[in-house]
Amino acid sequence: MTESSSGAGETHRLVAQRKEKLAAWREQRAAFPNDFRPDALAGELQQRHADDAAEVLDEAGHEVAVAGRLLAKRVMGKLSFATLQDRSGRIQLFMQRDLLGEDEYKAFKQLDIGDIVGVRGKLSRTNKGELSVRAADWRLLTKSLRPLPEKWHGLSDTEARYRQRYVDLIMNQDSRAVFMARSAIVRGVRDFFEARDFLEVETPMLQAIPGGAAARPFVTHYNALDHDFYLRVAPELYLKRLVVGGLERVFELNRNFRNEGVSTRHNPEFTMLEFYQAYADHHDLMDSIEALLRTLSDHVAAHHGQACNEDAVRFEQPFERLTMREAVLRYNENIDQQLIDDKEQLSRFAESAGVRGEASWGQGKWLTELFEETVEHKLVTPTFVTDYPAEVSPLARRRDDNPEVTERFELFIAGREIANGFSELNDAEDQAARFQAQADAKAAGDDEAMYYDADFINALEYGLPPTAGAGIGIDRVVMLLTGRSAIRDVLLFPQLRPQAATPG
């Protein structure tokens, strides 16, 4: 018998045993009651009474009702100890036969690790100094039919943690802390923009024309209209329509979908922040993003430090700002300005660096691909890279003094792209020409090229005020602020390859 089959057999035996206990319990009392109401949380009790001595607790006689999952149990004759975990933390239960009565104490001894219970009693401190609830009565609220893993931290198959996140959250306090920090980060983003008079909006997830990013979309079919629709790759074009309509400061915090590969940095479904501000340029956005990340970092470090490790990024120093040309020159040897300006020399150099190009590429595309191949992963400290070529920036405003490049930036931290933003192109005729170039590229076989969006051109013809907008990958921000190296560690339910169904 293999180790895996042996483990499966043991699990089946334990499940059968627990089902027998549940059947016996059903004959005696309600098996899944829903009338117990806790009035205290384990973590809050630990904090509130951290300095209270046993005598103080006994004199005060604090009576509490707590509910949660049993994670440990030690039975010792006339008394037992157990560990209860709720959403806030853990607290010890002190179960005594003389206080509970013979029958209730005997029933408690039959409970299994993983069962969910409600307990009422007074706070006390044991001889070893452990804050405890001295139970006066208790109730089984939910019977756990499957045994919890004994050493979840030690699982070599980390994919199991992602597939069964519910078990990971039960057993792994670090995972719980990460997702509590994530919630605080999302809340902090909203607070930041609302304090600056931005309006939170929602735009369509299903789009007739996917736009706003160079990415392959997911395709679905809308039966009522008998028409194919696309899960959005970005909300950008709809948000700019709102600025045309007079909503001069808007942001959206929601999901995007891109039909691309899965890796430690990519998930096909991900959370994105996009914000747009009229009468602002890309310099204003870089200032705002730097302030936002510093605010979020300070908050997580102050209130969720347990979610961070030594790899978490801090933002005490000002962010560096480099043009793409400056970055390529700094991080590549044997290259100079003259080579960058010559398409033939640049393409040969890029190919020698590992770039696999196409004959249709212009100088700007070659420069961008060389940057991505040789520079991105070296940008460890927070760095804004600016002046992206117009050739690879179909929605960005050209620089007045150099129309070959745009007022666009990307932010890189720890070798990852975190944000992308630019002064928006509000010249309807220029935008129409760039859309057409993208449409031509798509017709030539570029699956990630943008579609021609005639309605967006129509909106621009009504007049988009001078505007700047940016997108920030929230999942990657959470990775940075909690020191996680894989995007799956900060997604509650990351996308995984479907697993063959197995009998319970």
From TrEMBL:
It is an enzyme of class 6 (ligase). InterPro entries: Aa-tRNA-synt_II, aa-tRNA-synth_II, aa-tRNA-synth_II/BPL/LPL, Lys-tRNA-ligase_II, Lys-tRNA-ligase_II_N, Lys-tRNA-synth_II_C, NA-bd_OB-fold, NA-bd_OB_tRNA. It catalyses: tRNA(Lys) + L-lysine + ATP = L-lysyl-tRNA(Lys) + AMP + diphosphate. Keywords: Aminoacyl-tRNA synthetase, ATP-binding, Cytoplasm, Ligase, Magnesium, Metal-binding, Nucleotide-binding, Protein biosynthesis. GO terms for molecular function: lysine-tRNA ligase activity. Mg(2+) 1 binds at E410, E417. Pfam families: tRNA-synt_2, tRNA_anti-codon. Mg(2+) 2 binds at E417. Its EC number is 6.1.1.6. PROSITE patterns: AA_TRNA_LIGASE_II. Binds 3 Mg(2+) ions per subunit. Its main location: cytoplasm. It is found in: Cytoplasm. The keyword Ribosomal protein does not apply. NCBIfam families: lysS_bact, PRK00484.1. Homodimer. This is Lysine--tRNA ligase. It comes from Salinisphaera aquimarina. The lineage of its organism: Bacteria, Pseudomonadati, Pseudomonadota, Gammaproteobacteria, Salinisphaerales.
